[in-house]
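In this supplementary section we document a worked example of the pipeline. Step one takes a protein sequence of length 201 as its only input; no multiple sequence alignment statistics are reported here. Step two produces a three-dimensional model, which step three serialises into structure tokens for compact storage. The input and output of this example are shown verbatim.
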Amino acid sequence: MKIKVQPMGTYQTNCYIVTIDNKDIIIDPGQGATKWVLSQCSNPIAILNTHGHFDHVWSNDDLKKRLNIPIYTPKLDCFMLENDPFGQGIPPSKPNYRVKEDATHTIEDIKVTFHHFPGHTPGCSMIEIKGCYFSGDFLFEGSIGRWDFPYSNGRDMVKSLEKVSKLKNDFPIYPGHGSPSNLKKELAYIPYWIKQVKQTI
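The serialised model returned by step three reads:
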């Protein structure tokens, strides 16, 4: 498996291309991602969204039309792609697959699991591919996603942090912003973040 990454747009949102057996999976194509993705993909098969925020899904529709490939999005966040609730002027996109919580899909023999960790958004997920987790805006290196946005929920974030703290296997984490990390490293920060979130709810 090969992983390419390029930060996109004002918020430097990480767009990933995961290549397995010469098949390319695009994760979180943000603002301005189209040119880079087209230059890096030889056999694209799907677009995956970790969650519905505009800076992670901006180029969904453009790439879907150009490449004729499906979009997979957590079902609880699909309204963000379709209705632009933050008024950012995002091109609307329509997911082909509205992914249920903690569901696994097989895309051309590649198993993809959307692990549901709400709080930042209702559908916020970490996407597992071949033992690597693309954490979107749930976990970052030394930090977590904000829980004070519209449609965010601090109580859900606490539950998600408690849920991730119970995971036993270490794995690489590729976040929506910033540098890669791993679960073992981030688990050290989880009690601090649980305390911080609880103080606000």
